């Protein structure tokens, strides 16, 4: 089944949905060097069920999601660029991945704690939305580098 590429970056996109373990790295990057300066003009949305579930668990709203994106882009460490599947909407996204220390509400502790966060995002092909593909603590990060 052919998937649509929903990110602004499309060069070398896979034709089909990515399978577990399939090569995902994009050799150039970051793909969106102007994203931070354009962030305030864009909507910021989660495009995966996993990110939505993480947001619910940690009481993160869309304003907080924008904050994580801004923090990653301004103070985070760029890791790599990857092709990623999204499911809300369904398609393939070319994303930049970052890690950044950030405050995160931790339900077990019932308080906010500084946590090393993994943030993977892109700008969509419309140019007015930032799609967040992954948002979680970095201990759950699969290293593609």
What does this structure look like?
It is a single chain. 19% of the residues lie in helices and 39% in strands. The protein is α+β, with helices and mostly antiparallel strands and 145 residues long. The chain has one domain. The protein has a six-stranded mixed beta sheet. A hairpin with a 4-residue loop joins strand 4 and strand 5. The radius of gyration is 14 Å and the shape is globular. The model has no long low-confidence stretch (mean pLDDT 89).
Low-confidence stretches: none
**Helix count, per DSSP?**
3
Order of neighbouring strands in the sheet with most strands:
1-3-4-5-6-2
- The sequence of SSEs as H and E is EHEHHEEEE
What are its keywords?
alpha+beta; globular; 145 residues; 19% helix; 6-stranded mixed sheet
